[in-house]
Amino acid sequence: MKTKSNPKATVAAALAAALLLIGAADAFGYNVRLSQIDPSRLLLTQNVRLYVSVTDDRGLPVEGLGAEAFRIFESPDGQNFQRIEGLSEFKPGAAAAEGITFLLLIDNSGSMYDTVEGQPTEDAGRMRITHAKNAVRTFLGSMTQPKDTVGLVSYNTSYTLLAEPSGDKSLAAGFLQGIERPDPEQAYTELYAALTLAVEDFSGFGGRKAIVILSDGENYPYLEHSGSPHPEFGEKIYQYTEPIRACQEAGISVYAVNFAAQKDPNLEAIAVETGGTVFDARDQEELARVYQSIHRQVAGEYLIGYRATMAPAQKKYVRVQVQENGQSRQATRFYFSSTVFGLPLYKLSALLVIPLVLAFLLLWLISRLKFEKKRGPATLEVLKTRVGRAQTRVIPLSSAKTVIGGSRSADLTIAGNPGVKEQHATVVYDSKKKAYTVVGSGDLTVNNRPVKTKVLEPGDVIDVGGATIVFDDGEV
Amino acid sequence: MSTGWRRVILLCLGILGGVAAWPLTELIVGAQGSFPSYLLFVAVLGAAVGLLMGAFFGSAAGIFARVGSRILSGMLVGAFVGMIGGVIGLLIGQAALFLIGGVFLDSYRSFQTIGLPIARAIGWAFLGIFVGAAEGFRAVSGKKIGIGLVGGLIGGLIGGAALEYSRLYLPPSLPSRLIGLVVLGLAIALFYGIIEHSMSFGTLRVLNGRLKGKEFILNEGRIRIGRARRNQITLEPYENLADRQVQIRFRRGEALLTNLEPKYPVLVNDRPVKEHRLKYEDVLKIGSAKLFYSYE
pTM value? Predict the structure, then answer.
């Protein structure tokens, strides 16, 4: 399919459509989330695996649903969905044993150095950042699953990836120690930008992924409050919907740990819309349960496998519908399904046979080409010169004497080579014997043998001061 | 035929291979929805592209040697090996595309303008590698396989990106897949032509007679020269030489010439030899033909 549309606009429209679909909801009490689409077996087995999270209105996983509660649809355009009949795989709780990759985002902006109530303080023990660092330590200490990995990011005006996700929890702990109060230029809070960038940093990691953000919920963009363009984002101000969209597409849940006295409505929306939760940092017991809560949610996911359709598309939209008590709730995401040769033409024409025939016809013509020499005059041809250059590459031996030398008046001039005499060698034609003889006045070799004079045979190679000259009598 | 002509013909064959593969490609791509699986769809597509491009590249050796039967046999073997290469290459390419495309789709950072072209270029590169190497497998020559690998890799990368960018930025009436396939064929041929020389053991240039000016690129470990067409270097229009007169073996940087038929003398620098270690700029006389051994 060919369109001339602006590619960015196309992507934006597709994403907007996806967002609409994802956001579609009714009064049904369940939340359905397509945590992950795994098309890694698509090529070999035609199967696509879905990890579906179904939670109730308290964010707790809904267990015990049977395969009949799920309906799968696929669409090449996000509009026309085709029902997939029959599932190839259905496993409740299949992701329980899988590791989770966590990315911890710690807010290191100016406001994190106030008290939880938002009052300025010099008492480090009362600062939000101290609580946040303690919360990270608690989190790292509670990580018990050996397959889990964790990375650390700090953000304020800038986004800084401190530690890439790794199984070594002490790495993140070490970097946590180094987080210091930012200077005023760095003290702004690009919360939404940081979350969006974190999703991009996460894109290279497979499997189940979760972002844990430790923040006071404040988004205090540099551009808006300093009046100058942001050093990295320029005139762009990130909206809270951007990380929601990015996380939903990438199947990442955001879990927020709140360090302000009030819950920030946007931070809460980010967490809930991405299938995560907001934890209250003042509740130490709750804080200690963050890790277990996330694990429980992942463990409650349903693994559903189905046979993919073959409709051509750059990406295929998958919709999961959960039916319960006559009501339904659905979630939609897409996976990459483009093939190496891309989308088909709108219509095929019988004229396509012409290039095929033409190509074979031209091949036949090429195969008929004869690259054979015809009879011609006797010649001297300069193949190469080691020093200097030849004025002409080929000269016919049309006179009785043909002089090879450095002189301009020579018939074959090798210029710029001090080793070549003015008249270095002469090719003499004996019309009675019909033979050509080369006679040297300087050093001369024929077929790599030093000679003074030699009757030439066709194909003899004369070397004059490093210039390689081939004699040919023109016969074939 | 000089090296220059040889390169021009290779380029023509590359373009024609791409042009020939295009209609079949469109036909198969158009029928994607009718295939039961991606595996079969990709395998059939790879087979079709590899078969046609392999056939065209396979004809090269016969065209250079000017032997009609070798053109046909080269095409058949090239088509067969190309077909296998195409299937393997496109399957790996598709797997790579699914993998990389998924990553780019997740990061959605300029997916259409950067992500998809990169992913597709990598997918095509695998196709290029296997189609390019097919000629080397046909000739059972490690060097040729190497040449084809590099040419195919670069050609595939450029061809895949060309397909994507021509689709994005050129009018929709232009067949982007044709452009991609032609660029793939052209690039394989171009790099083959360039690298063939530098990866070879040198050239033998005919200095006289009907084949004067023709350069034979020595890119196989064992070269046989004689009147018969089964030799890599056929000196059919010349006299006083046997069907299989001379063998040159390249081993550990040395080129050893052996006269296989003592009935006719073989001269190196005007001296008759039975066995001779060749050095560059030696002048060989085999029958009435004179040849110049060099490395440019």
Answer: 0.71
